[in-house]
Design brief:
single chain; alpha/beta; 6 strands; about 180 residues
Length: about 180
């Protein structure tokens, strides 16, 4: 049986959205995220980060720096008993029109193929329209984290759920995941 996964956007979902996070010191995990990810881990979901990182193509930071930031994220989460199982990122410039930059579903499709994930039993979580569009196109259920912003008006195809925090997301996903697996 193929695995269930929760795909997470990075900036604005896992960590504070810093304009082109260029240094490890600028990376700050949002409140409740470690607890939420740990809950998803404990319920048997693969947790996969899918993130656009055009700052690499723009020359704002190198892939080496990006990998250091991701290693720091993994270490911080591990302090809370949480883990991400994989990280997929798009380093391309938006003008490149690659298949991996959200809102296109390339990162999710590649992860599903490589990790044996059933996209129909999986979830895409993000704070932007592009995250929801990528998830819907890939065949996932979707959750928009909206912290007072009404991004729903921009969506022609609304998310399955709207939450105010990652902890709320995890609780909803776990409930929905149990229903889908029964």
């Amino acid at each position: 049986m193929r695995k269930r996964a929760v795909f997470l956007d990075r900036d604005g979902t896992i960590a504070r959205d810093v304009h082109y996070c260029r240094r490890v010191e600028d990376f700050e995990i949002l409140p409740t995220v470690p607890q939420a990810i740990r809950q998803l881990n404990e319920c048997g979901f693969e947790v996969v980060v899918v993130t656009n990182q055009s700052g690499v193509a723009r020359g704002y930071f190198t892939e080496e720096t990006l990998l250091q930031i991701h290693q720091h994220m993994r270490q911080e989460l591990a302090e809370y008993g949480a883990r991400v199982d994989a990280i997929y990122y798009c380093p391309h410039h938006p003008d490149d029109m690659c298949d991996c930059a959200k809102p296109r579903p390339g990162l999710l499709l590649r992860a599903a193929e490589e990790l044996g994930i059933d996209l129909r039993r999986s979830f895409m979580i993000g704070d932007a329209v592009r995250d929801i569009e990528a998830g819907k196109t890939a065949g996932c259920r979707t959750v928009l984290i909206a912290d007072g912003l009404d991004a729903r008006r921009e969506l022609t195809n609304p998310p399955d759920y709207v939450a105010g925090s990652m902890l709320e997301v995890a609780q909803w996903v776990v409930g929905e995941g149990h229903q889908a697996s029964s």
